[in-house]
C-alpha cells in the first residue's frame, strides 16, 4: 500500500510506522487515522510481524487531533460519522506495539501513545491533554487511559489545567516505561521491538491480552483469565522449545507457534 502521511518499514520481524506529516506537527487528521489503522491492521495480519513500533519526528510524536479539521464540525457531524472511532481498531491490534515518543505528544497524540503496549520516551518528550484549552475534552480515550496509567490526581491536573508534563514527570507518574536520550530513541525502540519479536508470537499476544485484561475486569476474574491463558501456552511448540533450551543451556529458537 502507498501512504501519504506515514512511512512503513520492515526490520526483520519488527515493523516501524513513522507519522510523517510534519507541516502540522503530525496532527492526527482523518487521513492519518485511516493510514495508521490500515497499516497496523495489515502488519497485525502478517504472521511475520512480531512487534510494531509507532513513532513521529524529533519535534513531535503528534501534536493532537487536527484542530483545523475539527473546528467547523457540529454535533451531528461528529455523531453520525462516529468521529475518531477507527482509532479503537488500533487499540485492538493483537501484535505488541511500542510508542517511541520524542517532542510533543499532546491531546490525540498522547492518547495514541497510550494505546500502545510499551511507551518509550525520549528525554525531549512532552505529554499532555490540553483539549480543555480549546473548549473540548479528550476524545480518543485520554480521560480513561491517562487516569488508569497515572491516577486521578495527575490526570485531573492535566485534563483540567491543560498543562503538560515532561519525560521525567511522565516516568515518575508511570506513564512511560523508560526515558532514552533523544538521539538513541529509535535505535533503542527497534532493539526493544526485536527483543519482543524474537519471543513466541502467540505467547507474546497472550501476555499482552492478559495485562490488558487487568484494566477491564476484577482481580478474581483477571486471575482466572490469566490461568486459562497460562494453561493454553502449554499447547504451543514454543513452550517446549523455551523450556528445553533452558535445560540444554542454549538460547531458544521460537517457531512462533
Ligand atoms: C492542527 C496543528 C496542531 C493541531 C500544531 N499544528 N498542532 N494543526 N492541529 N493539533 C500546526 C500549527 O497550526 C502550525 O501550522 C504548525 O503545526 C506548527 O505549529 P506551531 O504552533 O507553529 O509550533 P510551536 O510554536 O512549536 O508549538 C507547538 C505546539 C502547538 C505547542 C505543539 O502547535 C500546539 O499547542 N498545538 C496544539 C496542541 C493541542 O491543543 N492538541 C490537542 C488537540 S485536540 P501553521 O500552518 O500555522 O504553521 C485533540 C482532541 C482529541 O487532540 C480528541 C478529539 C475527538
Total helices: the number is 11
What does the radius of gyration come to? 19 Å
The overall pLDDT average reads 97
How helical, in percent, are the residues? 40-55%
Strand content: 15-25%
Order of helices and strands: EEHEEHHHEEHEEHEHEHHHH
Distinct ligand kinds: hexanoyl-coenzyme A
By helix and strand content, what is the structural category? alpha/beta
Q: What separation lies between the terminal Cα atoms?
A: 28 Å
3D shape: globular
Instruction: Please state how the strands of the largest beta sheet are arranged side by side.
Output: 1-2-3-5-7-10
Question: Low-confidence stretches at least 5 residues in length (pLDDT < 50)?
Answer: none
**Count of beta strands:** 10
Taking the sheet with the most strands, its summary is: 6 strands, mixed
Overview of the molecule:
The protein is an alpha/beta fold and 257 residues long. The chain has 11 helices and 10 strands. Strands 1-2-3-5-7-10 form a 6-stranded mixed sheet, with helices on both faces. Strands 4-6-8-9 form a 4-stranded mixed sheet. α1 links the parallel β2 and β3. α9 runs antiparallel to α10. The longest helix has 20 residues. It is globular and about 60 Å long. The two termini are 28 Å apart. The mean pLDDT is 97.
